[in-house]
Each structure stands twice: as structure tokens, then as C-alpha cells.
Amino acid sequence: MVPTSRVVSLCAWLVLASGCATHLDRLQPIRNNFYSGNVTAARVSLQKELKRHRGEKDVLQLDQAMIELAAGNPKEAEQLLRTVRDRFDHLEQKSAAEGAASMITDDTALAYSGEDYERVLIRAMLAITNLMTDGGDATAYALQVTEKQQAIAERLESEQLDERLRIEAYKQVALGPYVRAMIAEESPLTLDDAVRARVEVANFAPDFPMAKSDLQRAEHEVPIPAGHGVLYIFGLVGRGPTKEQDSAEATQAALLVADRIVSAVSPRGLPPTLAPVPIPRVVQSSSSLDFLQIRVDGQSAGETATLVDIGQMAVLQNEARKSEIIGRAVARRVLKKGAIYAVKEGVNAAPNSPTSLALNVVGIAWEATEQADLRCWGLLPDRIQVLRVALPAGEHELEIHPANRHGSFGMPARKTIRIHDGRNTYVMGQFPDSRPVGELLVSGETRD
Q1: What three-state secondary structure class fits 244?
Q2: What is the side-by-side strand order in the sheet with 305-309?
Q3: Is pLDDT of 7 > 50?
Q4: DSSP 8-state secondary structure symbol assigned to residue 2
């Protein structure tokens, strides 16, 4: 018979493998520094976490990209986003070894391959970021936004998701065709491409208030009047979604998922009653910031409007995949109980013996230390907003004010910009709340 002390030590090691602090705990100092406007401190905090938790390198590099954008380094940000994009694409093919490890501990044992919305938004942010440099790859990145969503949609067809939730949670993001349209409008030779892209924007985002006027202009007007250029403002507005740990009881749909997993790896059946299991829940931050008021040369030039509601997309996708998430957690709980029973059988532990009781305690602790996977792209905005303004060629003073329906408030961002005849100029700023973080980026001003 195997000594009780050895059995307990073995299982205790498995308990400790689950760890204590969550990704959200480690992310909080980075977010606090970033949102307070201290970009340097945010970078230092992030670098510490990269050294301590190499398994979270990919998702931390997404936050590093947002910090580099705020610091005025779009080229560095683009390289980071490209690296993680390629890594996530590779990790979408889950390994059997990782799947087994997650059943011993929890989903934090899996290499993080990003949520569906994050995989799409990497490409969206690549398109915007590239516009801040030479813009040479922006159209290609914009096409990737739509292509990735189509690939995700094809994958979801084979998964049993609630159809209503799936349609709402995975509707096409309009930023890809929006970027393609504005680039196409610069040349008389690609105006037909601009019209097609504007039609896609109107179809993908019917609530976008500028969709109809943009399409009307593309179809019937000269996109850029003589002696003018066009200013496009991209506002990264609000604090984006994060994940918190929640507990959930198994639904019928989740039990079907769990039964398939358990049946594939264990001869034991699924118990009829199960305790709640830990799962991640996507949460949005509340904010008094609704949009950005734009002033040019002291005159009102309009307000930004939401093109991509990231927070809503993340919440809806989390809800759509809830049964799958619960099902995996339930299956893991069942397999852990089965492992404890198997150890008992292996050491011939009699009921109520010290070994059996010790294994029961370890089994309870093993389950109690499970953690929901709270990894996420923590410095995303809540919304991507845009505004298009045609301006005479030359220098202009730009002001961007945080605002809501009651008016502007907080601290504005200011920048002198140059509008080129017949060309687009792009500006991007991060406004998580009442003040900008870092500096406004303007196309053509990239540091060497």
C-alpha cells in the first residue's frame, strides 16, 4: 500500500499548481498607472509582469502595444500586434497535452489564444496603427478584419450555440470596410471600391449615424473637394472590458458539453447533481464619457460616433459561449473526482480510513483552488469612435474634448495638424475617461 503521506503530498502538489493570484490582480497596477496618465509607470509595471509570468507574454504584449501607442511609438505597437496575431493564429490549434493539463488544474494551464473578439480587434488595431505610420498595409489589415470574422463564423457553424445569441454576438465589425472606404476615396480610380466598402459599413453597422451620409457622398459627390483634404479622427473611448470570476450551475446545454468531454476520456458517467463551478464573466466599466467633441481653429467640427462597441461585443460573445465554458469546468470537476476515486482504489483505501479521509480533504481543496481564466486584453477601449471632417489644405489647430450629452468636461487634447490637398490625414487618441492618455498620434509624424 502506498503511504498516506505520499498520496497527500502528490495531490497537494496538484492543488498548489492552480496558484493564487489571478491575471486580473496582476493587470490592475498596469491599468491604474495607464488610466492615470502615467505611461512610463504603466510600461515599468508591465515589464515586471512579463518577467514574472512568461506564460502570459502574448496577452501582456497586447497591453504593451496600447502603451506604445500612447507613448507615440506606432511602429513598435504594430510589431507587437503582428507578433501576437501570428501567435494566436498558431495557438488556435489546441494541443492534446494542454487539454489534459487543464483538466488537472484549470483553463489557466492552457496557452491563451485570445477570445474571438480579441482576434478580430488585433487586426482592427493593426489597421489603425498602420495609418499612423505610412499606411501602406492598412488596407490589407482592414481586409483581415472581415476575413477573420468569416473564418470564426464558419467555425461556429459546427458548434451548438444559441442561434439568437450567436447572430448578435458575432455580427460583422464595420471598421474593416470603413478603413478601406476612406483610403479608396483618395483616388478617382478607386471610387467604385469606396462605394462598395461604404455599403458594407451601412450593412454591418446600421446604427452608425454617419453610414448613410458617407454612402450618399461616395455615390453622388466628389469625396474630397478641390483645395481640401480630409481629417479622420479615431477615438479610443472609455475603459474596455475585463473578466471577473463568477460561479455558475450547470445548465442542460453545459451538461451535454461536459458529457461529451468526460465520455471521451473516462469510463465514469456524469453525476446527476453538481456544485457551482468557477467561470469568467466579462464586465464593462461605467463611464460618464459618451463621445469626443472636435474643434478645429476654435470652431466646432462635430462629434465622434461609435463604429465598434467593443464592450458590448465582448459581453455578448462571453454569454454566447457560456454553456461551453461551464461544460468544460463541469467536466474538469468530474474528472478530478474520478482521479481521487482512482487513487483510493489504487491504494486500497477503506471507507472512513485515514487515507480515504485525507484524500477526501485533498479532493475538496483541489476543486476549491480552481480559478476561472481571467486573461484578457486589459487596455482595450470600450468603443472605437470616428469622425470625418473635410478641411482646407494647410495648418489647423485641433482640439479634442471628452464630452457627454451635458457638454464637454475634463482635459482636452490639442495638436497642430497639416491637411494636404486631396489627401487624408489621420489622428488617433486614447480617452479612457475625462483626460487623454499619452499624446495624439498624427499620420506622417512617426518618429524614426
Answers
A1: strand
A2: 305-309, 383-392, 228-237, 424-431, 437-442
A3: no
A4: -
Q: 3-class SS at 200? A: helix
Q: Are strands 299-303 and 305-309 parallel, antiparallel or unpaired?
A: unpaired
pLDDT over threshold 80, residue 416: yes
Query: Is the torsion defined by CA of 149, 116, 38, 306 positive or negative?
Result: positive
Average pLDDT of 258-284? 71
How far apart (Å, rounded) are the C-alpha atoms in residues 41 and 248? 37
pTM of the model: 0.87
Phi, psi angle pair for 185, to nearest 5°? -70, -10
H or E segment to which residue 402 belongs? strand 394-404
Angstrom distance (rounded) from CA 41 to CA 410? 22
Q: Report d(CA 440, CA 426) in Å as an integer.
A: 10
Cβ neighbours for 210, distance < 8 A, ≥ 6 positions apart: 305, 386, 387, 388
68 contacts 77 by C-beta, under 8 angstroms: yes
At residue 202, what is the residue type?
A: A
CA contacts within 13 A on the Cβ side of 323: 16
Average pLDDT over residues 249-268: 68
Half-sphere exposure of 246 (CA within 13 A, CB side): 16
Strands 424-431 and 228-237: parallel
Who wins on pLDDT, 100 or 163?
Answer: 163
Task: Say which amino acid occupies 107.
Answer: D
What b/e sequence results for 177-196 when a residue is b if at least 16 CB atoms lie within 10 Å of its CB, and e otherwise?
bbbbbbbbbbeeebbebbbe
With cell 469546468, the residue in question is: 329
